[in-house]
Amino acid sequence: MEDIGSQIEHLSKKVEDMERMVEGIHQISLEMVGSYRVKLTMELVFGLLAEFYDCERGILLWRKGADFIPAGALRIEEVEKDEWRIEAKGISSYLKDKRRPLSLSSLPTALLPFSQKGLHILLPLQGKRGLAGILLFGLGGEALLEPTEERILQVLANFLVLSLQKERLYIKATNLSRKFKAQLEIATREFRALNKELKKKIYNLHNLFQVSTNVYAIFDINHLFNSLLLTILGQIGAKSVTIFLSAGDGEGRLIPKFYKGIREDEISDLILKREDKFSRFMARKGVPVLATQIDESLLKEREFIHLKKLELELFSPLLVSGELMGIMALGGRVNGEPYHPEDLEMLAILTNMAGVAIGNVKEYKKVEKLSYTDGMTDLHNYRYFSNRLEEEIIRAKRYDHTLSLIILDIDHFKNYNDSLGHQQGDVALKELSEILRKSVRKIDIVSRYGGEEFCVIMPEVKSSGCKKFMERLRKKVEDHHFKGEEVQPKGKITVSLGGATFPQDAATMDEFIYKADFCLYEAKRGGRNCSVSYGELHSPREVVPALFGG
What are the residue ranges of CATH 3.30.450.40 in the chain? Predict the structure, then answer.
């Protein structure tokens, strides 16, 4: 139970951390709207790195002329420009077009002449004209980053670059105003346009992280993907979205399970396979790909030809822990314009969020299963039994159905345990659990009631059917050979069973359980290795009315 609690606590903390991270990024976006100081943005970014990534040291280098020089630092004393100066030519060439965080240990030492002690990660800050800056920082413990953390770091890098661009534009506008009054109006219009674009980007980023908070809190697959479809349609402006997911038949098929903006008869017959060339291509790419970027060797593949006929223009792989779980396919944009690189970046972030969310759902389902499952027998536990019995009673009342409940336990089980040891006793419990599992219908609910006691909830089974099942089950247990059962008083492991039927034997849940348990007691009193149903008792003992509200 401690493992279950720690897993639940871990998932809760992960959601809380993400909410606080979203709030931190939102705060940066608000500060950027009203400020022209890159130093403020830098301080806020270092604050987030220290709080959420356990960042111990860090330094920000901006490009100035032919070199990169320090612009600010975290927990690094007496930063001297010459000590941290990096020649721009070599490092800019090496980091060209690189946007992901890199491990310092993977970089050529010649590019970083200063001491790397305490620094693990290098984050390139790409501007419109190439590498605008470099963020170096160290992490506590192992310097490992998850894909989601890498995406967030890239967003922070964009904030720094945008803030620098904004500050430089402001300085440029101020200087121009001193010299040329006529040019000031032009510079102001440019600045306002950039500010408007910046606000739009910040607004989109803010919306994106609000979406991420909602997505990470969803633990139902259908709800998750329906929410994702609406988000993609709204954020990217696609005409249609189709999500191909595993059919779950063990054949590696990917079928269209969720779609909007496209008719069912158009998409229902389209089946992809994980081993198809197109699927393998998408898995290798790992990022969104335009139809125009697909390898020529795939253009004649039957599946891709079908996709093209549906005018699907953008594809993105859905990866979970590096494994291809599905493919998203988008139609053209509503406004008729082609997809821009920003759209592909947005889709990549949304797809990555979906992958993380699916992983969360899987972990949640595991935890949920553990919370309702008996660890030794793998049957449902008492908590699950209690919840389901209450639900089935409500259903029986609503539809005027019968419901039978059986409680059974192993006769003289203490003698078996004491003679052969608890380890062999556990083996016997597992074997009995398997007999129970194979004896019931799919709609029946089998649970471990506690110790050597088990219970079976049987919807729509009358008293006569309950009795027949108990006798059939009793005989199966009696005929089964349990190791060492010769030590038992009758030389065999046997069970006693008690059963009751709702509503003829009981009116409430507590009374229902009491009546079945009472019949089990009568079976024990009658010599064991037998079954007793409440309806067959000639003179059943009176149940105290106060126990059941009447």
Answer: 2-216, 221-370
Domain 221-370 has CATH 3.30.2350.10: no
262 closest CA partner among 299, 218, 215, 306: 306
CATH class of the domain comprising 382-548? alpha beta
d(CA 33, CA 28): 9
What's the whole-model pTM score? 0.41
Per residue in 261-316, pLDDT (tens digit) is 888 777 777 777 888 888 888 888 888 888 887 776 665 666 666 777 777 888 88
The encoded tokens of residue 225 equal: 């993907």
Between the alpha carbon of residue 90 and those of residues 102, 111, 494, the distances in Å are 16, 7, 81
The predicted-structure confidence for 40-91, as pLDDT tens digits, reads as follows 777 787 877 777 777 778 888 888 888 888 888 888 777 776 778 888 888 8
Asked if 332 and 238 touch (Cβ cutoff 8 Å), the reply is: yes
Domain 2-216, CATH homologous superfamily name and number: GAF domain (3.30.450.40)
Q: Which pairing describes strands 495-502 and 531-533: parallel, antiparallel, or unpaired?
A: parallel
Among 501, 503, 549, 500, CA closest to 521? 500
CA 393 – CA 508 distance, rounded (Å): 8
For 472, half-sphere exposure in the C-beta direction (CA atoms, 13 angstrom radius) is 11
What span, in angstroms and rounded, lies between the C-alpha atoms of 196 and 510?
66
Domain with CATH 3.30.70.270 in the chain: 382-548
CA-to-CA distance for 295 and 282, rounded, in angstroms? Answer: 11
Task: Give the containing element (helix H, strand E) for 450.
Answer: strand 445-450
